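Working notes for the structural subgroup meeting. M.R. asked for a predicted model of this chain before we commit to crystallization trials. I am recording the input and output together here so anyone reviewing the notebook later can reproduce the run.

Input as submitted:
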Amino acid sequence: AWDTLMAESPNMSRRLVHAEKVREVNCISGYAWRTDKQYGDRYCLMGNTAGFLDPVFSSGVTIALMSAIKACEVFVASLNGEPGNWEEYETYVNRGLTVFSAYVNAWYDQSFQDVLFYDHPEERTVSLITSVLAGYAWDEKNLYTSEAAKRLKILHNLCST
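Returned structure, recorded in C-alpha cell form:
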C-alpha cells in the first residue's frame, strides 16, 4: 500500500527518487503501556515515561505537564522537611492515564465517533466531554472522568440507538 501510494504521488516520487528503502513498512499495534511503579528512591517518572497511550491523541502533553506539576508539589514538600507523598502522586498520574485511556480506546473502537457525531447532542454533555479533551481529565466533578470507560460506553449506547 505504501509503495502504491508513493508511486501515485508525483510530488513524493520526485522527492524520494534517490531514497533507499531500508526495510518494509509495517504496522505497530498495542503500543500503549503503563509502568508498574512511577516513583522510587530519588526518582519519579513523568509524562510518557509513566505511561504512553497514543501517538496521535493529544493527551501526552497534558499528562507530561500535569505529572510535572504534581511531582513539583511533592519535591517542594520534601525540600520543606515535610514527607513527600509519592503514593498520592502515582494515584494522581494514574487517574489521568485511566481517563485518557478510556477516550483513546473509545476512539479506536470507533464508539467515540458515534458520540462525537450524534445528531442531537445535549449541551451539558458536549461541554463535559470537551472539557476532558481540553485536558481536564483530573476534574472529579466531571461525570465523564469518573469511571470514564463505563460512562462513555453508556453514552455510546444512548447515541447509537
